[in-house]
Amino acid sequence: xxxxxxxxxxxxxxxxxxxxxxxxxxxxxxxxxxxxxxxxxxxxxxxxxxxxxxxxxxxxxxxxxxxxxxxxxxxxxxxxxxxxxxxxxxxxxxxxxxxxxxxxxxxxxxxxxxxxxxxxxxxxxxxxxxxxxxxxxxxxxxxxxxxxxxxxxxxxxxxxxxxxxxxxxxxxxxxxxxxxxxxxxxxxxxxxxxxxxxxxxxxxxxxxxxxxxxxxxxxxxxxxxxxxxxxxxxxxxxxxxxxxxxxxxxxxxxxxxxxxxxxxxxxxxxxxxxxxxxxxxxxxxxxx
Length: 288
Hints:
The protein is of the alpha+beta class. It has helices at 2-10, 52-64, 86-98, 111-114, 136-149, 209-226, 233-239, 284-287; strands at residues 30-33, 39-43, 70-73, 79-84, 116-118, 159-162, 176-182, 185-190, 201-207, 267-269, 274-276. 28% of the residues lie in helices and 18% in strands. The strands form 3 sheets. It has a 5-stranded mixed sheet. A 4-stranded antiparallel sheet has the order 1-2-4-3. β10 (267-269) and β11 form a beta hairpin.
């Protein structure tokens, strides 16, 4: 019945279902053309903050697209310039170049930068314990130097940061995740998978910038030389037993694969600024 109603509204018959498979996660950067002949360009807007030359450039592009085309916000805090007629593609490209709006592999700098996400945190959010939006690009910039030395600059790696355990930046779904504990201090999580089907695992508590770089540097080096073909960073960390995979625990008891006491229960541990989600109920000591 539902299909019939949709076809009635469309005024045409729908085609037969076709098999599909998700082969990637994240945003498409650069120009892509769809079957209707229109063009779409994915752009990097760091942490989704439209300001400075990004604001100026996107305003000019909006003026050019009056009467056709527009913008789409992605769930990874980026912008897609959508439905661009072929006749206007060159004009939009000139504006992208003029205002230095990153949209290619070269201008988006690195796979880590293309996949960074953060919540707004300080100074906007009163719940934040630490920086996120204003700090993550700085941390990524320092890690890019390490990645370049390891030959991994173009490798897509998901990194996310949030200023408190509410996790608005979705750090638990990242290959490298950070949850703020105090100014300049974070809990560090590793081992999520690139496609978002596995949570990451607590790797280090209360780490500062220097400690983050110190801990990630040997892991990047190891990944550069020991990874399998097309193996993502999070999958490598699990295979190399750097961290154990986060798995659903049996109801009523801890998972035998999770040894850390704060990796297993389902609760917010405000004393440690950690947010852990699995299927195990809290231990009695946490309910007292």
